[in-house]
Amino acid sequence: MAVLAAAQLLDELMGRHRNTNPNEKIKKPNWEDPEYCKYYMVKFCPHDLFVNTRADLGVCPKVHDEEVKDLFEKAEPSYKKSQYVEEFLRYCRHMINEVERKILKGKQRLELMNSKPECPPMTQAQTEKNQEQVKLLSEKITALVQEAEEAGTCGNVEQAQGLMKLCDRLKEEKDSLLKQQENSHWSMTAELAAAQEKQMEVCPVCGAFLIVGDAQQRIDDHLSGKQHVGYFKLRQAYEEMNEAREKEQQEKRRREERDRDRDRSSRSSGGLGSDRRDRERMDRDRERDRGDRDKDRGDKEKERDRERHRSSRDEKEKSRHEDRDRDRERERDRESVRDKDKDRERERDRDRERDKDRKHRKERRSSRERSRRRSRDRH
Prior knowledge:
The protein is mostly helical and 379 residues long. It has helices at 2-14, 38-42, 66-74, 79-114, 124-154, 157-196, 216-223, 226-270, 272-378, and strands spanning 200-202, 209-211. The chain has a two-stranded antiparallel sheet with strand order 1-2. The termini are far apart.
């Protein structure tokens, strides 16, 4: 992504043909080439709407060129141009559906947060009564357990089993009372938290959470933010283009109906001559449709050839980069080996110097020792 951003910046500063040789013939731009961004030519590129936000789509891998956009707008209506518009509308519809799902989830989350607990909180008197019942049940359970143990030691197995069953029922009743008390505590805590929290709402454009009755400055900051402005622009463009397309389709249907009515009236009044004209017109329409299909097929073949050529060129460039990286790695390995050899050689030189110093010191000590002995011998 960083390489693509740097390449686009260089294209804006130095032009798209910055790497061509002076004697090389520059290819004229064509809006049908696959290297140009279709969305940018139709209206705008969605990758430019949410830069440095949570909805960032990254850098667009295609080329954005104003000259090519002008060529696209000036080009005559064709099947390929309508396909570009349809693809832009599909992509906008996909992004709008995603943000609509986000808005729905946010509303469901707020409804869940604002929903009241199932059981209402208990009053102070009910809580005290509940605690007394729990205390009495605990005492009864302890007494029954002792009686069951005494009956078991005396050999009354049936009596001991009956006491233990009664003890289990009392334990279940005690657990239900404790659970009711705990639910009441949590419901009170949830009510207090809901009372302390601020009321929230979901932005119907971008799906962000907003505080109800917030300061006007914060609301203005949100409305002028990239994410809100981007989704608003996306929705507005989709609605305008979709409405224009529907109007165009309705106008086309009206023209077709008028042509059919005119053909019926001419057939009813013109006889065989009108039939011949109809056949000739149908033949011309078929020939024109066949020519359009052949042109589209040829354009697709050219596009596939360009894609294959580009992929092979990318593969060759990638292999050259890999070979260059391997050569650099080998050179670094050789440099490291040479550095290690130099370090060893310097270490050997230092060892030799130390050996020489030790030998000289030893010789000086031995010469001093001999001179001392001679001096003692003379005295």
